[in-house]
Amino acid sequence: MYNASKNYKVLMVAWRFPPDFAGATIQSIRLGKALLSRRVRVEFFADNGVAESVYDIYDGVKVTRTKTYSNKTLSKFRELVFCIKLLYFVISRPEFNIIHFHAIRGFEIFLFPIFRLLGRKVFLKLTLADSDDPVSFKNRRLLGAFYLLGLKCVTGMFAISEQLKNRALVAGIAKTKVIKISNGFDEELFFVPDPDIKLSLRNKFGFKDNSRIFVSVGTVEHRKGYDLLLEAFAIIQKKYHNAFLVIVGPYLETDPYYMKLRNQIDGLKLNNILFVGRQNDVHEYFKAADHFLFCSRQEGFPSVLIEAMACGLPTTVMNIAGITEEIIDGTGLGEICYSRDPADFAKLAIQQSLEFSEDKVLHTSELLLRKFSISNIADEYIGNYNKCFNISDT
Fold first, then answer.
1. What CDD domains would the database entry show (predicted)?
2. Burial of 354 (0-12, 13-18, 19+ CB in 10 A)
3. What is the chain's Cα-based Rg?
4. Handedness of CA 71, 77, 82, 88 (dihedral sign)
5. pLDDT digits (tens, 9 = 90+) for 165-193
6. What is the pLDDT of residues 314-324, one digit of tens each?
7. How far apart (Å, rounded) are the C-alpha atoms in residues 18 and 280?
């Protein structure tokens, strides 16, 4: 474990925060808790929309939720108010020596040079290509050049994939500032269950003993590729008549994409498709299932892949260039569909089910613990904090 003797006080800035869930939010909380367990003091600052400002505790982590007077996620007014309140908060709390941003919208970048002038270390975590990476900000028509100037003021950038790291370098960020650190999984929640635990969880969710349970996790939206998944599952269900597809993730029944999926289910004459919404116990669905399917079109680093494999699930994924290979290669449990054709995807998933072995589970579990456990990932962050404060990792 890295030395955390420096009196670090880290303000994690994550404008989306529960009950507004996103992958980057979940990862930021997971990292915050891991850092707290290593004697690094961590608090969060988050956007509370039209709700009143409040100081809160969420899952053991302190968070200040600030009112921004709008419930429109992409409102520039809301973004500006958030930045003004964040600036005041940081100035009034001089004990924070590290400001660590997660999944920014844009205006936060203009705070980077101000915080550096105030003597704070500023870190930015890059989470999604073509969204919050430096190339995307640089290419914004009105403020691109100013965004880039602000981005160059960071102490360091944490890229969760090689693709995001390369995009930072292409945008002109100094190589010495860009550090690749993957997302991590909580090894206390995501692990291979013994047969009794698996059976108990299947009973809890009402799955029959002879059912073959396929699971997919993520917000029900076009980016996640559930339309592709349903096409593939139509083929899988012809092979396995007892197959269920459980989709874990938030959705709105009035959302056009969700309604499109419902029509698609009817058109393909599919049965046993379960939308269970957002769940706090995703790890239990993994442990109850037999196979994980993932058809997303765009990701920064899909942590659900390592979580599923950590629970011993054969995992079939649609290829995302520069992303999926980095996670899947060498695991034994994961297979990538490079054609992104639902028919090929279905055949690959069926083949995986037939070739499944416990040896692959053991090999993958050991590999994932070394590469992606949140304990090891937290140590990497502390090591980089230490470098910025010229502290040796002893």
1. GT4_PimA-like
2. exposed
3. 22
4. negative
5. 999 999 999 999 999 999 999 999 999 99
6. 999 999 998 99
7. 11
